[in-house]
Amino acid sequence: MGLVMGTFSMQTKQVNYHKDKADDDLEMTMVCHRPEGLDQLEAQTNFSKRELQVLYRGFKNECPSGIVNEETFKQIYSQFFPHGDASTYAHYLFNAFDAAHTGSIKFEDFVTALSILLRGTVTEKLQWTFNLYDINRDGYINKEEMTDIVRAIYDMMGKYTYPVLKTDAPRQHVDAFFQKMDKNRDGVVTLDEFILSCQEDENIMRSLQLFENVI
């Protein structure tokens, strides 16, 4: 899940922190889409105004129009995985960020998701991840959906990262996870089953804490 964070974070480290409020307000008006006010975003997320300003400048550097379509998102995301094909995973990730299904990601969408992934509770983070895996939005994760996501992750990381894995490795990976998560053996994983299984896995719980102090 940490892969989500890298997309725009590099830009935030190059920001000039000494711009005054007038400059910040001017930046907010010079794009095609003007995001919601900082006060409102501060209330809706776990970020301070200063953190939101830093994030916005990074977002605007990558997306001057203030809106990211799927193709642009894929291009940005693929830069972090030059040895693999990140397009399919980026597609699923884009849909998770585009919670309203508008076909684009606005700054509000970006910081809302980032707030959950960086500063949300364990339950909030797991709910967001569940929605990523629930491709058809029916409230369940089936084996096909989980296989599609896992295969996309393998493709993204690249074949040179896993030289010894067989072509059926994603399916084996999913079978093992499904056996653990599908508590009642009905062929699908519910949100409650997903959260409970993840909370029982020490590796998953540690991974949820890795990016809590990124910003």
Automatic annotation (TrEMBL):
<keyword id="KW-0631">Potassium channel</keyword>
<dbReference type="GO" id="GO:0044325">
    <property type="term" value="F:transmembrane transporter binding"/>
</dbReference>
<dbReference type="GO" id="GO:0015459">
    <property type="term" value="F:potassium channel regulator activity"/>
</dbReference>
<dbReference type="InterPro" id="IPR018247">
    <property type="entry name" value="EF_Hand_1_Ca_BS"/>
</dbReference>
<keyword id="KW-0677">Repeat</keyword>
<keyword id="KW-0851">Voltage-gated channel</keyword>
<dbReference type="GO" id="GO:0005509">
    <property type="term" value="F:calcium ion binding"/>
</dbReference>
<keyword id="KW-0813">Transport</keyword>
<keyword id="KW-0407">Ion channel</keyword>
<dbReference type="GO" id="GO:0008076">
    <property type="term" value="C:voltage-gated potassium channel complex"/>
</dbReference>
<feature type="domain" description="EF-hand">
    <location>
        <begin position="85"/>
        <end position="120"/>
    </location>
</feature>
<dbReference type="InterPro" id="IPR028846">
    <property type="entry name" value="Recoverin"/>
</dbReference>
<dbReference type="GO" id="GO:0005267">
    <property type="term" value="F:potassium channel activity"/>
</dbReference>
<keyword id="KW-0630">Potassium</keyword>
<comment type="similarity">
    <text>Belongs to the recoverin family.</text>
</comment>
<dbReference type="Pfam" id="PF13499">
    <property type="entry name" value="EF-hand_7"/>
</dbReference>
<keyword id="KW-1003">Cell membrane</keyword>
<keyword id="KW-0472">Membrane</keyword>
<dbReference type="Pfam" id="PF13833">
    <property type="entry name" value="EF-hand_8"/>
</dbReference>
<dbReference type="InterPro" id="IPR002048">
    <property type="entry name" value="EF_hand_dom"/>
</dbReference>
<keyword id="KW-0633">Potassium transport</keyword>
<dbReference type="InterPro" id="IPR011992">
    <property type="entry name" value="EF-hand-dom_pair"/>
</dbReference>
<protein>
    <submittedName>
        <fullName>Potassium voltage-gated channel interacting protein 1</fullName>
    </submittedName>
</protein>
<feature type="domain" description="EF-hand">
    <location>
        <begin position="121"/>
        <end position="156"/>
    </location>
</feature>
<feature type="domain" description="EF-hand">
    <location>
        <begin position="169"/>
        <end position="204"/>
    </location>
</feature>
<keyword id="KW-0406">Ion transport</keyword>
<keyword id="KW-0479">Metal-binding</keyword>
<dbReference type="GO" id="GO:1901379">
    <property type="term" value="P:regulation of potassium ion transmembrane transport"/>
</dbReference>
<keyword id="KW-0106">Calcium</keyword>
